[in-house]
């Protein structure tokens, strides 16, 4: 189902990089289609759907508590991915994406001399984390 996450991430990835915007419609439609395919093929269980969205919704709540310091769209994408791959796998991917984005943030501060409050998109790091898991496993 990680390859399904790649498909799910493509549109938000491009929109996040090019326009710094998030459009929920394509993510919702893609998630429903991929969930349907996964359920029919027996790759997605009801348990993974019911528990997989929780980490993403926690990100959405953190976005609201921090007045948008964390993107709400990022939380929605994490919730959608979680429903496809389950809560444990999404936590692994999310932690890997956090490490990648922290490295990038550190590079921005040290090499580029950017301020610590500079914003950058998170979805590309989720995409890179999925790539790492696809090629190197857990």
Q: Your description of this structure?
A:
The chain is mainly alpha-helical. 78% of the residues lie in helices and 0% in strands. The chain has seven helices and no strands. The radius of gyration is 15 Å and the shape is globular.
Quick description:
The chain has helices at residues 2-19, 24-41, 46-52, 54-65, 72-85, 87-110, 123-136. The protein has 138 residues and is mainly α.
Question: What structural keywords apply?
Answer:
single chain; 138 residues; mainly alpha; 7 helices; 78% helix; 0% strand; globular
Question: Uncertain runs with pLDDT below 50, 5 residues or more?
Answer: none
- How would a crystallographer describe the biggest sheet? none
- Report, as a whole number of angstroms, the end-to-end distance: 14 Å
Give the overall average pLDDT: 89
Q: Total helix count?
A: 7
| Gross geometry | globular
**CA gyration radius, whole angstroms:** 15 Å
Q: Approximately how much helix is present in the residues?
A: over 70%
Number of strands: 0
């Amino acid at each position: 189902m990680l390859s399904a996450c790649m498909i799910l991430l493509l549109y938000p990835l491009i929109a996040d990089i090019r326009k710094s915007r998030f459009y929920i419609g394509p993510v919702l439609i893609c998630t429903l289609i991929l969930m349907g395919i996964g359920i029919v093929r027996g790759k997605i269980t009801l348990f993974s759907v019911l528990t997989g969205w929780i980490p993403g919704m926690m990100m959405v709540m953190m976005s609201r508590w921090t007045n948008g310091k964390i993107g709400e769209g990022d939380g929605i994408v994490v919730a959608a991915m979680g429903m496809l791959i389950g809560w444990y796998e999404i936590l692994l991917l999310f932690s890997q994406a956090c490490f990648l984005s922290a490295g990038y943030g550190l590079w921005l501060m040290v090499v580029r001399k950017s301020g610590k409050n500079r914003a950058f998109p998170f979805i590309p790091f989720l995409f890179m984390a999925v790539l790492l898991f696809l090629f190197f496993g857990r």
